[in-house]
Specification:
Layout: H1 4-13, H2 24-45, E1 48-49, H3 51-54, E2 56-61, H4 70-81, E3 88-92, E4 96-101, H5 108-119, E5 126-131, H6 133-162, H7 165-189, E6 192-193, H8 195-229, H9 234-271, H10 275-306, H11 310-337, H12 375-379
Parallel strand pairs: 1-6
Antiparallel strand pairs: 2-4, 2-5, 3-4
Helix pairs in contact: 1-9, 2-7, 2-10, 4-5, 6-7, 6-8, 7-8, 7-10, 8-9, 8-10, 9-10
Length: 432
Amino acid sequence: MPNFAQIGNDLYTGKRSIDFIGRQKTWYAVSAVLIALALVGIFARGLNFGIEFRGGSEYRISGVSSTQGYEDKARAAISQAGIPGNIVTTVIGGSSVRVQTEDAGDKNDAAKAALAQGFGVGSTNVSASLIGPSWGQSVSSKAIQALVVFLILVALVMAAYFRTWKMAVAGLVALIHDLIITVGVYALFGFEITPSSMIGFLTILGYSLYDTVVVFDKVRENTAEAFLTRRLTYTQAANLAVNQTLVRSINTTVVALLPIAAILVVGFTLLGPGTLLDLSLALFVGIGVGAYSSIFIATPLLVDLRRSETAVKDLDKAALRGQSRETAPAAAARVTKGRPAARTGATAVQPTGVGGGRLATDRSDPTYRSDPTDRSAQSEPAGPTGRSDAAELPEPPGVSEGARASSSGREVHKWASSGPRNQPRRPPKSKR
């Protein structure tokens, strides 16, 4: 089972990395498909606006003893009254039922009587109200105005905070991306758009903006350090920032989606259509899409927008040169690491003397001359057996035969082969 804490730590330190920026074409293609499907749903199927936007009649039945099968009862009563069109039925407060229909007109009284009979309540327990389409048009225009003002303020704040308009553009593109896909999901599946849904659409922009700002803040920090140190390219620094904030984005999204998913399950299975269900559905879709756009769309788009800048080009060239210089010695070391070391025995080394002649490597040779640069041949005293007195010491571990041969071919003391010999001892510290 994978250790998610270790994976998150590896992503933050750069030991493990996902190439988000290098695969931006893949993410763009996925988003293009999703946006195309959303636009098909919006313009081909159309949006299913609620009664608040298209107008109609609303009936509330209070004091209902049993809400079991309330949808079938409401549908049968409205059909009996002769009112065509879609019917939306909701249980409110456990003992009240709300029924929304098309404009009843002169059939309003017949609908009230049929509903009272169907639910077994008195006629005074059924109230009726008429909702005109002008109210829905007013709500729609105000929502569009709020959206435009919100996007303008977001662009100004992001441009001032990050000190570059390109981050603001990337953030706005991510927001519009989230909004189009969320509305497209409503259109494709035929979910009803109510004022609660409109509130949810505006709320998800805040969630998406939050995730994007968190990632962009880390991108700014990493790229600023890259401009100072010249060790990473702009793309590498931005990709590292996305990896470092990936776990945080996932945790934030999961924590936000779990309670919303619980509300959706309860709403679909127990409560039925209503304000809570409409709001939670918009939030669930929007938060999921917003997390996707913050990671896969906003930062790759920012890198593409800044790739043509002169400063970014100079940074990329300097970083790539530095990385090539760092990797060249490492590659050479890997090549020479597997080669066997040359042995320096008496028969293998023929050093050259000071006068240019070759030195004999055997003391019995009449032409033998010691190498003046060979300190081991000058300072090592001979013992009674013709060898060094220290030769009787035990051989240290890891010392090969070749390591005990000097450059003149004469055997070197086994302890001196790994370092200088006859170093003076430090005088003992005075006890007084």
